[in-house]
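Troubleshooting log. The previous run stalled partway through. Resubmitting the same two chains, unchanged.
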Amino acid sequence: MAKKENFVTVFIMGKGYQVPAEATIMGALEYAGYQIIRGAGCREGFCGACATVYRLPGDYKIYTGLACTTLVEKDMWLSQLPAIPAYKTIYDINKIEPNVAAVQKLYPEVFRCVACNSCTKACPQDLEVMDYIQAAKRGDIEAVMDLSFDCLCCGLCAIRCPAEIVQFNVSILAKRLYGKYLAPKSKELSNRIKEINDHSFDKEYKKLISTDKEELKKIYYKRDME
Amino acid sequence: MYPEYMHESIKKVTQTRNKRYELAKSGKPVFPPMSSDEREEVLNKFHPDYKLESKRKIHIGPNKGESITTEVAEMLESHSRINPKSFDLSKPDYETDILIIGGGGAGAAAAIIASQSGVKSIISTKLRFGDANSMMSQGGMQAAIKKIDSPPHHYLDAMGGGHFDNKPELVRAMTEKGPDVVKWLEELGVVWDKLDDGSFQALHGGGTSRKRMLSSRDYTGAIILRTLMDEVRNQPDKVNVLEFMPTVELLLDEQGKCAGGVLYNLETEEYFTVKAKATIITTGGYGRLHIRGYDTTNHYGATGDGLVIAYRAGGKLLYMDSVQYHPTGSVFPEQIAGFLITEKIRGAGGQPLNKDGELFVFPREPRDVESSAIIRECVERKNGIKTPSERVGIWLDSPLIEMLQGDGYINKQFPAMHRQFIRYGIDITKEPMLIYPSLHYQNGGIEINEKCESNIPGLYVAGEASGGVHGRNRLMGNSVLDYNVFGRIAGEYASTYTKSVKLNKLSLDHINSYEKELKAAGIRTDLISPVLLPSYTPEDVRKRPLTAKYEGTLR
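Second attempt completed without errors. Output:
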């Protein structure tokens, strides 16, 4: 971590602690002695467990970030969000279609979007959240999928949204609709599954399984490479 | 940004790039792959598992007398969190068909399969649902769907990668069911990387003889697991997800059948009992035990909880002497030390290079071999690059990928990796990454058969917590496949089992017996397990007295 003299003060939920100047917020919390229960997951920017809000001195703005990837700043005042209240509509993926009707039925509040862009500003992944919500309004499922692909479901957009939309659940819906209904289908996959169901590989498997280790080793090191 | 003193070495990487590009384009191997003997030599000398102190004998339990990973032995030779006397097992707090322990990919897949046959389940998860290594897999999932490929090709690759120690029937199940898993996931709505005609994009991984790595950009695990979780949450009448409620012991019935578990509410510190006709352990691995002091790519809760609760109940472990170190963990900047850099980088043409910008190993050896070669290059040959915090690493040349695959490829295919580094002023389309092996995967686990059955009736295991399928070294992309294939299998067989099993009186006697065994073996320890969470409290704070136990009026 940082050199001994290189420390800054951060205010964890209002209480000041000296932490290494180059620490992430998560590193700073643990350095200060916190044992995190809620607020840490993958610790690498994939799971969205560590949504954090903070302010900086002399600045009216409220900032958002993931504790695992955001570095501390001098005199930062921060608080982790242990959980984000969000609802999810229950649905049967087999009974909906990849169009605007699905959005209207399952997440009608999407149409309350006032295009304020607060969601986009809050996104720690720098996604164009508002743009994908606008795409959802148009029923452009592919655009929602593409723009929201890297969403971590941290929920920072949802708590900042004046229209009370839970953006990340709209994103999951769109991805599932795209993957299931809109992505072009692969012929090679269905052919291969048919071959397996027809037991086309049984003989080869049986042979490999009954081959002793030394012989298998020889086959392995001699195998051809694509 | 890289410090000034590294610039000279980066320049060498740039200087050798054109030559390496020409070679890569020629289609020939860019460096000679190792023979069997060469692999053995580098593993023996440099793989952390092959160090004498990395293993010790375990003195109690089903694997008594076996040599296993030291940190795992310590964790297993420990006390339970609970006192069996304080539980009235005649009145369980919950009753269900299947208790699924662990809220990652295998658990979610099992719950979905169970719900489809009308079987109810409880998912007990230590952190949030989906806080799991499954969420973090980046590069892809292997499945033999291409014409030039076949499931037996996949079988042979996996066996060779695992040093032929894999259980053949498990490898057959995994490789043969791969294509069906791809289809199942697509029907649930997983977005795969595809070409315009619908065919799958497939890349190489370490140890693959065919291109069969299917992916969802570099968020493969996140896309798959969030799809599975969404589907689980669409079944609220069938699946009850209990978050921040890890299972800390198994329950048996008087005949020794597994009958549920004891759950611990991490927040209120209460214990609850769950009576279940069948139990599935899907707790994942143990990276957060920081074996041999290594950084880890694993999520916060990866403390091997499933191993110890199964072991106390008599569950046999397999290959607990084998740990996987991912060849490419990040070492710079310090804030992301140990973080996973996906193998897909090498699959797409990225190359590991020493401080002189030279290749020293074939970029796609199986993981244990590749890692050992990197350690050798740094430790023995001193051809690594030191970081300001005294770590050492070698380069992973990513700009070469843009040359090979075209401009914009990294942004499209590696958004997570690009984001990871650009935060610290490193643009991986222009500069290489500095890497070193990082603790990644538990190769062994609770031994299962092809029905995911353990040696305890009614106890099923799937995913990283299980042992046998990967032998002593897993190949890239086989864990995502593993948790899907075996999560489904566990869900299926456990569901069937619930329809005929009759449970007797519940019991925690195995906890008492284990405690007696500890004492009889003369083991004195104050360790309690499951570990549940690692502690990163620094020495400065630890110097002060901390509350270790609640006593008196506090609780």
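Takeaways: The beta strands of chain A are 7-12, 15-20, 51-55, 63-66, 77-80. Chain A has three domains: 7-80, 93-182, 187-222.
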